[in-house]
Amino acid sequence: MEFAIETVDLTKVFNGLTAVDNLNIKVKEGEIFGLLGPNGAGKTTTISMLSTMLKPTSGTAVVNGYDILRYSGQVRKSIGIVFQETTLDEKLTGKENLEMHANLYKIPKAVGRTRISEVLDLVELGDRAKDLVETYSGGMKRRLEIARGLIHYPKVLFLDEPTLGLDPQTREHVWEYIRRLVQKEKMTIVLTTHYMEEADLLCNRIAIIDYGKVIALDTPDNLKSELGESNIILHVYDIEKAKQLFPNAKISRNKIILPAKYVEREIGRIFRIAIQNQLQIYETTIHKPSLNDVFISLTGREIREEKLENNFRKHGI
């Protein structure tokens, strides 16, 4: 089976609002596939349909070889999911939370004990297994939820905004655990996020979604390369001299902007010219195309949080 997930015109409408609009994507086995977009773009709704928690208005999808409408039970058995909001029982220990989840999936006790130990070690919570979850930090709770999603050996793991609300250091730790999952568990991961850096660092391929539609789908590098070259930005004291030395540069107040395909090679040449002509440069910036630049080029705006999100949240999107 080449594709772990394949959607066919997958659509969801809530009271006249189209949350997901004829979605057609194919997720390869063993890849980390990102759904990148602003809040309210339809990312969570997509995962809710793929995990059979929400029935499509039209269209369908196949997950691990099972149609989500005809074989919802088999789909649920073959997937794991980590929600945006914490769903742990904080009055239980970490181990007890995992035991309860293992029982729901009817995992034999002997197998469950081994698996619980494995996943706790994977997310580095083995030494806190017997502590109440209410004593865990936000990052530890997120790691425990990832461990819980793995307990039944799923083929596909859905991570819905897995680092939402975490501090930057904890977020990086969670990224490392996600990378480790792919290597050790050999599974497919579908990740929703509105963090550009998260999508760029983790995902093999990304579908950029806006207003329920896929507006671009490719690897992070290919998406960024479509915007062209990097820019070397020089902040100078004598802008007139800079114009003469670099006539093809773009000028913005006291800085000149030079496109550069090979930054390391170009910046050396630029500085040699500046030194030879006594052009003082007091600051240098290198700007490489980012996924945020890609989103802006496609939509004319940055990732946003606006009224649309509030409308969708009323319907649980």
- Stated plainly, the CATH topology of the domain at 3-78 and 154-224 is called Rossmann fold
Rounded Rg: 24 Å
Task: Kindly name the structural category.
Answer: alpha/beta
Classify the helix fraction into a percent range: 25-40%
Give an overview in words.
With 317 residues, the protein is an alpha/beta fold. Among the domains are: 3-78 and 154-224, Rossmann fold (3-Layer(aba) Sandwich), CATH 3.40.50.300; 230-288, Alpha-Beta Plaits (2-Layer Sandwich), CATH 3.30.70. It contains 12 helices and 15 strands. The protein has helices at residues 43-50, 72-77, 94-104, 109-122, 138-150, 168-185, 196-202, 220-225, 239-245, 263-276, 291-299, 307-313, and strands at 3-14, 17-23, 26-28, 32-36, 58-63, 66-67, 79-82, 156-160, 188-193, 205-210, 213-218, 230-236, 250-252, 255-260, 281-287. Strand 13 (250-252) and strand 14 form a beta hairpin. The model is unreliable at 305-317 (pLDDT under 50).
